[in-house]
Amino acid sequence: MSAAAEAATPNEDILLREDRDGIAWITLNRPNAFNSLSRPLIARLQEELDRMADDPSVRVIVIAGAGRGFCAGHDLREVRGNQNNEPFIKELVGACSNMMQTIVHHPKPVIARVHGIATAAGCQLVASCDLAIAEDGARFATPGVNIGLFCHTPMVALSRNVSRKHAMEMLLTGEMMDADDAVRFGLINRAVPAGKLDEAVMEMAGKIASKSSYTLKVGKRAFYDQLEQPDLKSAYDHASITMVENMAARDAAEGIQAFIDKRQPKWEDR
Fold this sequence. Notes:
Layout lengths: L14 E6 L2 E6 L10 H15 L6 E6 L10 H6 L4 H20 L4 E5 L2 E3 L1 H8 L2 E5 L3 E3 L10 H8 L4 H10 L3 E2 H7 L4 E3 L4 H13 L3 H15 L4 H16 L2 H12 L9
Parallel strand pairs: 2-3, 3-4, 4-6, 5-7, 6-9
Antiparallel strand pairs: 1-2, 7-8
């Protein structure tokens, strides 16, 4: 499913989508540029995310990359060509930040399927996804410091996924991190052999897709909302209110009754 061509022809879309069994597989398709996030690619990804938000046929989203790597961050040729064009750079950074926030606030769970490299804004994309599975040869970095451009916006997503000292190590050194360390630091969920990557991603996506989409939506929203609360009591208060609302949902009643009856629930997604 995820195996895209090593090179895209001029007529091919820079973003591909394939749906199967409630899972929307989105592939960044700029393989000759290591799927760098050009302004058009950011716009296409934003457009697709917005379209899937209210699509009941989509229960889980997978983001993958074509060719030799997942994503190498911003398109530095595009950046260099517009370096003195402040309105363009401001719009580019703003659009990318908005797209990352869309993933976090999206009602559907989003999984990153990572192979090759995920650097700078590509590493930010991995950190912004709810879950991430990588091949064991994948490497991660926030290398902006090496070219005089600190990874300021990737820092936001990174610092919300890994510990402060590990985040600072990545940001200050710009060095590559292997997949084992990415698991240990909490950037990704697991690393698997390259030949097992699609299987592992689909297994996880399939498990999630089998749940009530309503429950997934309110649960994902509550997870991120409680993290932003100022103290522990506020987090518990917020979670308690959400749990009471969830308890009144049709799928909660069905799920509890199915458990009592020792049968599989029939979700209505409400």
